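Recall the central idea of this unit: under ordinary conditions, the amino acid sequence of a chain determines the structure it adopts. In this exercise we apply that idea directly, starting from the sequence alone.
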Amino acid sequence: MTEASPQRANMGYIAAIVAVATIGGFLFGYDSGAVNGTQGGLTEAFSLSDSGLGFTVGSLLIGCFIGAFLAGRLADLMGRRNVMMLAALLFLIGALVQGFASSQIVFVIARILGGMAVGAASVLSPAYISEVAPASIRGRMTTVQQIMIITGLTAAFVVNYFLAAAAGESTATHWAGLEAWRWMYLMQALPAAVFLVALLFIPESPRYLVSKGRDAQASKVLTSLFGQQVAGAKLEEIRASFAEDHRPRLSDLLRPGGGIRPIVWAGLLLAVFQQLVGINVIFYYGATLWQLSGFTEDQSLQINIVSGLVSIAACFVTIYYVDRIGRKPLLLIGSAGMAATLFALVYSFANGTLDAAGNLQLSAELGTLALVAANLYVIFFNVSWGPIMWVMLGEMFPNQIRGSALAVCGFAQWFANYLIAQTFPMMASWSLAGAYTFYAVSAVISFFLVKKFIHETKGKELEQMEG
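Accordingly, the structure predicted from this sequence is:
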């Protein structure tokens, strides 16, 4: 097995490729976080009920699970880079139409289109990075994607905060006679345009090129990445990892004797439980959550920014350890930490009081406990399940089934994400403590599932992956 080591690799070129690919992660984060702080504007502009708001916010995720599935399949048909370019175009269109939407229907359609871009970027950026990075640093390179996701989320929180502050509140009129909340979406158009143009300057994945029989092009890309000495042997290893009788297809996910391959079940476990622990309640509904807990809108938006900065810092811990101690230990640490901090949140919410309007109020002590627990929870997530799930989905599957497996697991991840986002407003109206009990129990379950079913992938070449 020929190892494409960092010493042999053209690290400057690989770093540039990773930087471009992870702009998709930034847009993934920004589009996901932009809605946080715009809910008052959406409710007022479109006269939304609680369930209507849940659907409008969650409509992004309808696009996400569609986009993740289609992108995984299209990546095997037309290439990783071409599908990412299509996603960049959808990001641009979605941002502009969401900002100018005059009705809920138009807004939801645009949000679904933006969601398709998010879903595509979420599965293809880490997969693409895994297919161009040396095995010994692949985890670190792929974790950059999570940093960019959180950076995008934090950028959305910062933009939302300053736009709301400049206008007076998110529903007030700002530039060009548009409400501040509309500018929170329009700001995404600039990085979307940068992503679209930058993608023109990176190569196609060599694994995809080999799958299409374009060996000469694959050899050229591999030479640019790892040098002439490694490229020839690496090309042969990649070619040997694909079935000789057919190109990759969805039915490859089934075992010869019937049933879904165990490695696909493991991927589905990671995809679904990353969402069942409730992380995106913090990101999608952070402002609403903290206002339910007794903080003002201004304080809630500031808390979102702090959570985003904490998340970025946590990802740097992952970069340091992911290729040293491995993926599985980090997942186990994350599950245990999230369970403990989520139960602390349950305690805070369960011991709060209700005001005359029925809104939850926390004492100073309980409010502090909730704030500290929430940020520790975000740290544990972003040291573990946040980046590691995407790292593993991008690398754990054999070359023959990677695109198809990403399609199925990406669909499952975003569908679970949708269910969590859709149900939180209703669950919170019944019992915030009850909602967080569900997330805490899911974190406990995830610990034991990882211990039993997840196998380490640290340091393995993609051609060594078995399924």
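Residues 11-202+260-458 form a domain with the Growth Hormone; Chain: A; fold (CATH 1.20.1250.20).
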